[in-house]
Amino acid sequence: MMRDGFGRRIDYLRLSVTDRCNLRCVYCLPEAAARFAPGSDLLSDDEIVTLAGAFARLGVAKIRITGGEPLVRPGLPALVRRLRALPGIEDLSLSTNGVLLSGLAAELKAAGLSRVNVSLDTLDDQRFAKIARFGSLGSVLAGVEAAVEAGLAPVKLNVVVARGMNDDEVGAFAALTDDKPLHVRFIELMPMGETGFFTPERRVPLGEMMAAAGPLEPSAAPLGHGPARYYRRPGAAGTVGFISALSCGFCDACNRVRLSASGTLIACLDGEDGVDLRTPLRAGAGQDELMTLIREGVRAKPESHRMIARAGAAEANPRYMCSIGG
Ligand code: SAM
User: Ligand 1: which of 23, 95, 197 to mutate, judged by most atoms within 8 Å of the beta carbon?
Assistant: First the structure.
């Protein structure tokens, strides 16, 4: 079992399998000139499995595959199968924008994927084109349906809320949970990436989101809860959750670290530094050496993120969320 320098147990790895994305959401990536790592820097399937195996031997039991957009990585189902087979991995989930999900959901389920989170910020076609700049709302909704049908449950929808972008849709998203066993999570906009999108005015505080999603009563969390707080609309089939890095900190209970698509261990979502695992891996490091490096990286995890200070100074973390995996 791994603990960081503040005694937090780390048993959850967010594993980015690509930094590329087929969308360019306004708050996440610039439309042109996104800085992606050279292809030769990206980990191969074998390298990902070797590193994930080292994390698993150190007590990581849950892996979430993320990106970039993980579904643009060729051969993802085969990689899922290999990760699922790692001793100690009990839960394997995926975060996706959903655009390519309808064609892959059944295959991913058969390969051993447990569940999916789909990111979707609007229920309006034209607005989707403005926010995501590529893809289509119809393809994402088809992906959500395919995930439910394939049994990739619980299916969670992640909605980043920003003033003037979609803050008028919180009620409509929350209402989706009334009849369907969907779990809608509203995510407070974070100062990440040099998109110039984050401003303090664009942030919609937790209280305002909760009022718009209500009426709400406290609820148990669906499987795999992390930093979200969960509620239920009276009589609803699904739940409504809130992830608010700025309004109420979640660092005390943080149980996760991240591995970037180019093999850097990033101990905090808001961290700017990381531990390069790719270079030693490619130089022939064995599991023991990799495990030592991982332990050191985890021990150096900061006590909390610095997003509140960043937001106050209107300064974003220079890393794109796409390079960290969210
Ligand atoms: N492509 C996958 C997806 O769409 O879920 C995984 C990667 S994406 C970077 C992970 C999550 O980060 C998405 O839900 C996205 O909306 C969220 N995200 C990106 N930039 C953000 C920001 N500045 N503030 C809050 N959430 C952000």
Answer: 95
Task: Quickly state the pLDDT bin for 314 (edges 50, 70, 90).
Answer: low
| Nearest CA owner, ligand 1 atom 22 | 190
Distance from the CA of 37 to the center of ligand 1, in angstroms? 18
Q: Ligand 1 test: best mutation among 27, 321, 323, 324, most atoms within 8 Å of CB? A: 321
- Count of C-beta atoms within a 10 Å radius of residue 169: 17
**Do 247 and 206 meet the contact criterion of CB atoms below 8 Å apart?**
yes
User: What are the sequence ranges of the domains in the chain?
Assistant: 12-323
Rounded distance from Cα 326 to ligand 1 centre (Å)? 5
pLDDT band at 255 (very low <50, low <70, confident <90, very high): very high
Compute and round to an integer the Cα radius of gyration of the chain: 19
- Using the mean position of ligand 1's atoms as its centre, give its distance from the Cα of residue 208 in Å: 21
Which H or E run contains 117? strand 115-119
CATH number for the domain whose boundaries are 12-323: 3.20.20.70
Which residues does a 6 A CB cutoff place in the pocket of ligand 1? 21, 27-28, 66-67, 69, 95-97, 119, 158, 160, 187, 189-190, 192, 321-322, 325-326
Q: Is the pLDDT of residue 221 over 90?
A: no
List the alpha helices (DSSP H) in the chain: 45-57, 76-84, 105-111, 125-132, 137-150, 170-179, 206-213, 278-282, 287-299, 307-312, 321-324
Tokens of 178: 């009334």
Instruction: Report yes or no on whether pTM surpasses 0.85.
Output: yes
Neighbouring-strand partners of residue 159 = 186
Q: How far is the CA of 9 from the centre of ligand 1 (A)?
A: 24
Residue 316, CB-side half-sphere exposure with 13 Å CA sphere: 19
